[in-house]
Structure formats: structure tokens, C-alpha cells
Design brief:
The strands form four sheets. This protein has a six-stranded antiparallel sheet. It folds into four domains: 41 residues, no CATH class; 96 residues, Elongation Factor Tu (Ef-tu), domain 3 (Beta Barrel), CATH 2.40.30; 121 residues, Nucleotide-binding domain of ferredoxin-NADP reductase (FNR) module (Rossmann fold); 82 residues, Beta-grasp domain (Ubiquitin-like (UB roll)), CATH 3.10.20. Helix 1 runs antiparallel to helix 2 and helix 2 crosses helix 3. The chain is an alpha/beta fold. It contains ten helices and 19 strands. Strand 3 and strand 4 form a beta hairpin. It binds FE2/S2 (inorganic) cluster. The site of FE2/S2 (inorganic) cluster has 13 residues, from loops.
């Protein structure tokens, strides 16, 4: 009771500096339990153990897509860059399910709301739940913003955005940021062409807002492509749609076949450097790492794995109850200690070979034999 009263007296201003006072007070009052265990009863966003946020509203964008407006808790100290994604963990049937989604909000000062826009995928139970089953007020876990699908500062003078389906989400954040910063006088608004494919006008996320931006800014050209009636936007149409595409820096996001075709097209033009891609899933080639024998210290179990097999998959194949969440290197749920040996992080090629290093097993492939503490 004393703790609740004290916290209430300190909390109403909700200023970040009060947090430290509250936690210091709680530390003294709650030993030996962690103060977070008590503070969560007062406000579920108060925790220093993990990033949390509260869903403030769910805004319908199309029949199968919605924007979640999330107020991050006090541990959120990030000013993301437009185009980055964030991990979100949601309790579903007693277990946290993790996914990553592009932030559609513009970078702002710390502590403001963030938004992510999600399309329900036919096989995606979590995306369906996020759109149709998530009540405002739900507390979710968050992972720090990440990703290098971002614009340079200052941006290039001529930009081509080429997107398909929900690939518009990181580009929407970029476009809003470009317009806002131009309005603030930070840079002139670049010459922007946006080629955006969607089956129908009704399914095109942000269609009206994009048209409005193009109507208000002469240097923004919006080229919607409705594939149910016009067919797919194949790249032999690019010369007509955007004649100067070779002189533009291009950011492309969408389904894998679209991006594969773009890679080929830009490579044939000798312009690989001008193409920037965002793919929706982590692809691990079967030639990454050396494979080897992965030993699991506590159980004494082992798994022989081929190159391209993650430590997480190795543990699962050996029947170990491996912890995991997103399986994409976002949530850190899978982090374990590498007792000995060497692994490579498939996202960036970083090598881990120091005894007792912490590794994310879902993105780590063995370089020969190694031992994991579990
Ligand atoms: S399972 Fe989320 S980082 Fe590995």
C-alpha cells in the first residue's frame, strides 16, 4: 500500500526524470523482488526489463489493412529513421508472437506515438489478430527500430519509389518525412516519382493520402497501377512511366518476384548502386557458415547441421526446447550463450567466437563445431 501511494504521488507528471525517483524508491521498498514486478501493477508500461507500448487505437485503412497507433513506454529512447521497421510482440494463447512491421510514422522527438500499418495475410494468424482482434489498451512488447532501408540526409534530388502491396509502408514514412522536412525548410522537396501496384483501388493502402500529397506538391508524381485491370507492372513499362529512371536513386519494397526483377533490371543497366531494397523476410542461403556439430551443454544433446542452418534450428532438430519469438533477429528472445566455437550472424556477416558471448540463435549459423549453454 505504501508503495502504491508513493508511486501515485510521484507519477502524475509522467516525466521521464520521475521514473528514476520511482524506481529508486521501489528498489528500496521491494527488495528482494525486482521493482518492475510491483510497478507493473500500477502502470503496465513501467518496466526497465523490456520495451513496451500501449495500443491507443486501431485505424482501418482498407478492408484488410489497419494502422496501429502505439504509445511506447518509458524505456523507448529511439528516434527512428523513416523506412525502418520495429518488432512487435503480442500475447496470443499465452505465448508472445513476434513480427516486424515498418514504421509509418515520421521520426519525432522521444516519447511520441508511433504507428505501424499491417495488412492481414491469408496465412498470417498474427497479422489477422493485430488488425481484427487487438483492443485499444492492449499492452504489447516492442523491439528497437532497425533496418537500413532509409534515405540519406540530405536526400537525392531525384527519387523513384517503386512499391507493391504493403511495401508502401516504409515508403509512406519516407514520403511524409520528405514533405515535412521540406515544409520546415530543411531541404527542398526532391523530384519524386512513386510507382505503386495494388490489385484494386480499394485495396491500395494510403491511396487517397498519396494522391493528396501529389496534388499539393508539383514535384511529386503518383503513378498508381491497378493490377487486376492493368496487369502487373513489368519493368519494360518503366521507360514510359518514368523516362529518367536511370538518373534516379530508387527505393523498392514489395513481393520477392518484384524485387528480384528489379535487381535484374538495374544490374543489366549497370546501376546496382542506385537501387535500394527492403525484403519482408530473412533469407538465409544454404552456403552461409560451415555447418558442424552443435552441442547443447545442459542436456548433452548434439545436432549435426549443414551450412545455412541456424543454431535455433539445430537445437530444435535435437529436441531442445529452444526459446524463440520472431525468428528474424528482432526480439532477442532466442539469445543464448556461446560456450565455445564460432558462429556467423547471417544479417551482417559478423563473426562471434569469444567464449561465453551472447548470440541470437535465430540468425547465427555455426562455423564448425560449437557449444551452446542450454
Ligand atoms: S527469435 Fe527473435 S531475435 Fe531470435
Amino acid at each position: 500500500m505504501a508503495l502504491r501511494t508513493a508511486v501515485r504521488e510521484l507519477a502524475p507528471t509522467r516525466r521521464r526524470r520521475d521514473w528514476h525517483a520511482v524506481r529508486s524508491l521501489a528498489d528500496g521498498l521491494t527488495t528482494p523482488l525486482h521493482p518492475d514486478d510491483y510497478l507493473r501493477f500500477v502502470n503496465p508500461l513501467w518496466t526497465s526489463r523490456e520495451l513496451r507500448g500501449r495500443v491507443e487505437s486501431v485505424v482501418r485503412e482498407t478492408e484488410d489493412a489497419a494502422t496501429l497507433v502505439i504509445r511506447p513506454g518509458w524505456g523507448w529512447r529511439f528516434d527512428h529513421q523513416a523506412g525502418q521497421y520495429v518488432g512487435i510482440g503480442v500475447p496470443v494463447e499465452g505465448r508472445y508472437q513476434w513480427r516486424s512491421y515498418s514504421l509509418t510514422s515520421t521520426p519525432r522527438r522521444r516519447g511520441r506515438r508511433i504507428t505501424i500499418t499491417i495488412r492481414a495475410m491469408p496465412e498470417g494468424l498474427l497479422s489477422e489478430h493485430l488488425i481484427n482482434g487487438l483492443e485499444p489498451g492492449t499492452v504489447v512488447r516492442l523491439a528497437a527500430p532497425a533496418g537500413d532501408f532509409v534515405l540519406p540526409d540530405p536526400p537525392p534530388e531525384r527519387i523513384l519509389f517503386m512499391v507493391g502491396g504493403s511495401g508502401i509502408t516504409p515508403v509512406m514514412a519516407m514520403l511524409k518525412t520528405l514533405v515535412r522536412r521540406a515544409g520546415e525548410g530543411r531541404w527542398p522537396l526532391p523530384d519524386i516519382h512513386l510507382v505503386y501496384s495494388s490489385p484494386t483501388p480499394d485495396r491500395m493502402i494510403f491511396r487517397e493520402r498519396l494522391q493528396q500529397v501529389a496534388d499539393e506538391h508539383e514535384s511529386v508524381t503518383f503513378i498508381p497501377v491497378f493490377t487486376d485491370t492493368e496487369g502487373m507492372f513489368t519493368l519494360d513499362r518503366l521507360d514510359d512511366a518514368v523516362p529518367d529512371w536511370r538518373e534516379r536513386q530508387t527505393w523498392a519494397c514489395g513481393p520477392a518476384p518484384m524485387l528480384d526483377a528489379a535487381v535484374e533490371h538495374w544490374r543489366e543497366a549497370g546501376l546496382e548502386e542506385a537501387l535500394h531494397l527492403e525484403r519482408f523476410s530473412l533469407e538465409i542461403g544454404d552456403d552461409v557458415g560451415d555447418g558442424g556439430t552443435v552441442s547443447f551443454q545442459n542436456s548433452g544433446k548434439t545436432a549435426e547441421v549443414e551450412p545455412g542452418t541456424t543454431v535455433l534450428e539445430a537445437g530444435e532438430s535435437a529436441g531442445i526446447g529452444m526459446p524463440f519469438g520472431c525468428r528474424m533477429g528482432i526480439c532477442h528472445t532466442c539469445t543464448l550463450t556461446l560456450v565455445n566455437g564460432s558462429v556467423t550472424d547471417v544479417r551482417n556477416g559478423d563473426r562471434y567466437d569469444q567464449p561465453n558471448e551472447r548470440i541470437q540463435t535465430c540468425v547465427a549459423v555455426p562455423n564448425g563445431d560449437c557449444t551452446i549453454a542450454i
